[in-house]
Amino acid sequence: ITNLLTEDNLPSYHRELADTFGFDNAWGTWVGRWTAEENRHGIVLRDYLVVTRAVDPVALEEARMSHMTAGIAKPEKGSQFLKGVAYVTLQELATRISHRNTGALCDDPVADRMLARIAADENLHMIFYRKLCAAALDLTPDEAMRAITDVILRFQMPGLNQPNFRRNAVLLAKHGVYDLRQHLDVVLRPTLRIWRIFERTDFGPEGEIARDELHTYLLDLEVKAARFEEQRDRALARAAARV
Ligand SMILES: [Fe+2]
Ligand SMILES: [Fe+2]
Question: Domains along the chain?
Fold first, then answer.
């Protein structure tokens, strides 16, 4: 339901994306094609949940209405383009992980194949944005580094405005669909490695400051991820002991 509601909020993302990238030439083609692909994700997820009677359709509709009415808006203003490409790179990758892991947990070959196919789309979206961001790093290293740091330090998934999002985010973390460890090891670190963030020698003083901030943040996140894993292991052990 969390994955579906996130896909459902597409009109908000389309508006933000069109606003950030514009509609001229290739950008218009990209935004249109991307929107069509994302729309299909919501369609197949809803079809699956409804035909398998896996959801209460009235509760789902109420959640959709509330989520779409709230919509989403860009978290920050100013130098939108660079922050935009950095954000969508990480968000598409996080979405890919979350769809893939949900499919594996469903214990149903149809759901598994369907979510693997959606995850494959998210992966292609991520690669496109990641390449844009890499080009931005080469063209304007300091500005791109600042944007990447700002985005990572404030990263939130687009489902934040969903009803029960916090409770569902805890469930997702508890069952290994998306947690802090995966955010750090599967989303942030591999992307930063491909951008060669910690090997680059083309930063000026501003880029160096932004990179140091990011480095400190990642050290802190590592401590938090380890703490989260310990707590989850203890909770699982307690639950196992009760059975
Ligand atoms: Fe999607
Ligand atoms: Fe996507």
Answer: 2-242 (1.10.620.20)
